[in-house]
Design a protein that fits this description.
By secondary structure, the chain is mostly helical. Helix content is 91%, strand content 0%.
Length: 107
Amino acid sequence: MAIKPIDMQIMMPRVNEMSRVQNNEQQRTQASHQNAVQTTEKQSESNTRQVNSREETHNTAIREKQQNEKRQSQQQDKENKPDKERKLQQREDNKKKTAGTTIDIRV
């Protein structure tokens, strides 16, 4: 099918206009796609931070619990230490007492 010169005069301005319209549409779709990608990245980053912050809070609670248990065990050791020392002292005293209290004499 041949294009007549009169048809060509009408088509040329429309071709330029259509190319601009198509260009704008492509840019809009690219921009919306890029926007969606950025939103998804932000969402995933915030989800990652949220999970990490929860784990850090959980670890902090565990650390505090461990520290409290350690303090309690140290206090118990301090309380038990004098008792142990007293018992050792008493044993040593008993050994000393028994060694010098009896005399074996043979006749």
